[in-house]
Every structure is written in C-alpha cells, then in structure tokens.
Write a structure and sequence with these properties.
By secondary structure, this protein is α/β, with parallel strands linked by helices. It has one domain: Metallo-beta-lactamase, Chain A (4-Layer Sandwich), CATH 3.60.15. Helices cover 27% and strands 22% of the residues. The strands form two sheets. A seven-stranded mixed β-sheet has the order 4-1-2-3-5-6-7. A hairpin with a 5-residue loop joins strand 11 and strand 12. It is globular, with a radius of gyration of 18 Å. The relative contact order is 0.17. Bound molecules: zinc ion. The site of zinc ion (ZN) has 6 residues, from loops.
Length: 307
C-alpha cells in the first residue's frame, strides 16, 4: 500500500560515494565480523526545479587529511583509515553531472562529524543548513571533547556563521503519514520538497532529509542514525563503540525504534533481503544510511551516481 501524504514537488536525487574509510565490521554491529569493512561516505546530490543544486553532506575531502595531520587529531585517521580516490572527489563527480562547486546553492549537514562535512570549504556560495545544537557543540566544547565526537573545527569555513541557517528555526511541517512516528519536520524551501527530520542520538543536532524523487519514491537520507540498513530489522544491536560514540544512547535507541516501525509497516519483512528490498521499492520508501555499501549497491541505477 502506498503511503498517502501531502503532495510536494519532486526533486532529482543522485547519490555519490565520496571516499570511504575502513574499520572492523564488529566495531559497528554487534556480532559483525572481525574483518575490515568498507564504509563509503555517501552524499546526496539533489536537483530542485527552482532552487538548483543542493547537497546532503559532502563526504571526505582533502581538508580532512590536513585537519588530521597532527596529533591529537591524527588519532581520528588512525581509528578510521580513509581513502579518497581522485575520481571520487566531490568536485570531479559534480563536474561529471555538469555542476561546478560554486553553483551549489546549499548544503544540508546531517551533523558535523568530519566525514560528513569535510568538503564545506570547497563550496564557497552554498548556504549551510545545520542544527544550531550541532554548531553550539562544535563552538563551545574543548579540543579533546570535540575529537572524541569526531568533530574537527578546522573543517568549518571562515564565513560559516554568515552562511549558516539553523534547521530548528525553519518552519515546522507535518511529515507524510508513514513518517510521523519520527515527529515533525522542518520545511527547508517552503514548498514541502525537502524536509529535515530529527533523528537524534548519534550526534548533537543530528537530522535526516526526506524528499520525493522523480521516480515517485520517498527517500530518507538518514545520515548516521543507523549504520546499515539491516539495523531496521532484528534486535537493536549496535556494537559498543557505536554506543560509546553516541551523543545520547536513549535517543538513538528511540530513533532506531521509529525507523524500524516505518520499515516494518512498509516492507513486510520476511527475512529475505532481496525480497524485502523489492517490497520496499514497491512501497515507495527508501531509508539510506550514509555508510551502508549494501544500501548503495541496491539503489536504482538512475539514483546511484558513482561508477
Ligand atoms: Zn557521524
């Protein structure tokens, strides 16, 4: 059954893989393997019919390597060895889609962890939608506290304050019916096409972005609210490092519970990944975690943007 909700303009979504890091799978999921997993940094390129090119996060960029060149920040790179092939640099990939970096009108920062905003400095004209709560944490906490929360202040552009738009201050908007378990959204452009959803717990001021694509499916770009799509099924079992890194474990647990309810409502989970995925597509809803290689591989060809 297709979810009914208020009509809102379609946007064109392309998901890009902008670098990746590696770490043991068992660091992210309880029961995960003791082998190195590849965790892509996924970026949403959204083309809005009136507002132009908009990004959901930026993934990695050269600024990340500069910001982690010295101790103690170097420990971040040791913990999550990072690779950014030249062909995956954001500018290179946007150019392939006919967009120059200075043409990007806005960036939605799901949160301020370095792997999500390392490219902000390369987008000189973009407004930056980001939760005020996330900015306050980055501005007011100490160097080690920031590092423990994967926050590198050097990645924020010098004119960040002038370009920052606080998500919390944007008009509230009801979510389409299927998503209401997550609360209320914020209408980013005033036309209902892009809605910020609170997905608290992983990081201070963590938000997802909900849109309806031209293929008439709803996509929730979920950031780090969950690490893998299969976190929406089975027991709630993030590994201890995920719990340790979480800004608020109880809130993260509630967010995962909400996402699981949406998944169960829409997908008719029967334990078979491929069948579940087909049902989810038929149902017209897709939850995309920022670092889930399997979710990326299952995206429709028209949405998957990195070869
Ligand atoms: Zn994060």
């Amino acid at each position: 059954m297709r979810a009914q909700g208020p009509a809102f303009p379609r946007t064109a979504l392309t998901v890009l893989r902008v670098g990746h890091c590696t770490h043991l799978e068992c660091m992210a999921l309880r029961g995960g393997a003791w082998r190195k997993g590849v965790f892509p940094a996924l970026v949403g390129l959204i083309r809005h019919p009136a507002a132009g090119a908009i990004l959901f996060d930026t993934g990695y960029a050269e600024h990340f390597f500069a910001a982690t060149a010295r101790l103690p920040e170097r420990m971040y790179r040791w913990a999550t060895p990072t690779v950014l092939p030249p062909s995956e640099c954001l500018g290179t990939q946007l150019a392939r889609h006919g967009i120059a970096m200075h043409e990007v009108r806005a960036v939605f920062a799901s949160h301020l962890h370095a792997d999500h905003i390392a490219g902000l400095r390369d987008l000189p004209r973009a407004a930056i939608w980001c939760a005020d709560a996330a900015v306050r944490f980055a501005r007011t906490s100490g160097r080690i506290a920031r590092l423990r929360r994967a926050t590198l202040r050097a990645l924020l552009p010098g004119d960040f304050a002038a370009r920052h738009v606080a998500i919390e201050h944007l008009p509230r908007a009801p979510l389409p019916h299927a998503w209401r378990v997550l609360g209320e959204g914020h209408d980013l452009l005033g036309d209902g096409s892009l809605r910020a959803l609170p997905l608290p717990g992983h990081a201070r001021g963590h938000y997802g972005l909900l849109l309806r694509n031209q293929d008439d499916r709803e996509y929730l770009l979920a950031g780090d609210a969950l690490w893998r799509y299969d976190a929406t099924r089975g027991p709630l079992s993030p590994a201890w490092p995920v719990r340790l890194l979480a800004d608020d474990w109880n809130a993260l647990h509630a967010t995962l519970t909400g996402l699981r309810a949406i998944h169960a409502d829409g997908a008719g989970d029967d334990g078979d990944d491929d069948r579940d995925n087909e049902r989810r597509r038929d149902d017209g809803r897709c939850i995309l975690p920022s670092h889930c290689a399997a979710s990326y591989a299952r995206l429709p060809d028209t949405v998957r943007g990195t070869p």
